[in-house]
Amino acid sequence: MRTLITGAAASLAIASGLAAASPLQWQDNSLTYLYGTDFEVDPKTQQAVTFEHVSGWSVGDLFLFVDSIHYNGATDANGNNSTWYGEIAPRLSFGKLSGRQLHFGPIRDVLLAGTYEFGRGDIKNYLLGPGVDLAVPGFDYLQLNTYYRRSDTPDGVRGAWQITPVWAITLPLGRSDVLIDGYIDWIVDNDGPGKHANLHFNPQVKYDLGKALGWRARQVYTGIEYSYWKDKYGIENTAAFDTNQSVTNLLVKVHF
């Protein structure tokens, strides 16, 4: 809970900094509860609570999340029964900064995308690169960000390239809707020994329960989150150590 409070405080601090130079256009905050088993590398069964913040500004947009993760009846390699992880991902819009619509083909904006990844165990990764927002029929939004990532590790500085598409699709279902959203993090190379290219596919399939019950739409969701990871954390999968993960989590998400 302390981690989530810290994440919320960080979100507000960053939003305040942006507000000093850029008016807020919209924002959304949410809490998500997840439960899943069959994780690899980390303890098998986990519960997580995630705070998320996303907002649009006159110069770009901001996404931030913090995971507070509890290991059920187990500890990690360092003897911890819990951990935490977060990301702060601002993007500067060249369309908004120039006051021009940068529309050509399916591209509706060009951006400079950055991400700071942080977590327990001195996780510190810095990502920067070009991004585009795409207008594709059927998608609520579709983004494609390409980063050069710099990782500070106990073995020194490591560099790699990463491609990250992000998407959302809303489909009507009876009296309500199903929202399918998520991302792929594909680290296409790693320049140091002992690390491998890896791919994390992480979609959520959520039913708008609030709308079905006559409450406000897009407020309360239930569903699943699927987490597929090939060579998790860049650790090569072997017969002796399985690092290819396939987990389906139960999910409840509340927006406020």
Q: How does this model look, in words?
A:
Helices cover 11% and strands 59% of the residues. The protein has three helices and twelve strands. The chain has helices at 2-21, 94-98, 209-212; strands spanning 24-36, 46-57, 60-71, 82-93, 107-119, 123-134, 141-153, 156-173, 176-187, 198-208, 220-230, 245-255. It has a twelve-stranded antiparallel β-barrel with strand order 1-2-3-4-5-6-7-8-9-10-11-12. Strand 6 (123-134) and strand 7 (141-153) form a beta hairpin.
Question: What is the strand and helix layout of this fold?
Answer:
Elements: H1 2-21, E1 24-36, E2 46-57, E3 60-71, E4 82-93, H2 94-98, E5 107-119, E6 123-134, E7 141-153, E8 156-173, E9 176-187, E10 198-208, H3 209-212, E11 220-230, E12 245-255
Antiparallel strand pairs: 1-2, 1-12, 2-3, 3-4, 4-5, 5-6, 6-7, 7-8, 8-9, 9-10, 10-11, 11-12
Helical content stands at 10-25%
How many extended strands?
Answer: 12
Helix/strand-derived category reads: mainly beta
Distance between the termini: 17 Å
Q: Please state the overall shape, judged from the principal axes of the Cα atoms.
A: globular
Summarize this structure as a short list of keywords or feature phrases.
256 residues, mainly beta, Outer membrane phospholipase (ompla), Chain C, 12-stranded antiparallel barrel, 3 helices
Task: Give a quick summary of the entry.
The protein has a single domain (2-255), classed as Outer membrane phospholipase (ompla), Chain C (Beta Barrel). The chain contains three helices and twelve strands. The protein has helices at residues 2-21, 94-98, 209-212; strands at 24-36, 46-57, 60-71, 82-93, 107-119, 123-134, 141-153, 156-173, 176-187, 198-208, 220-230, 245-255.
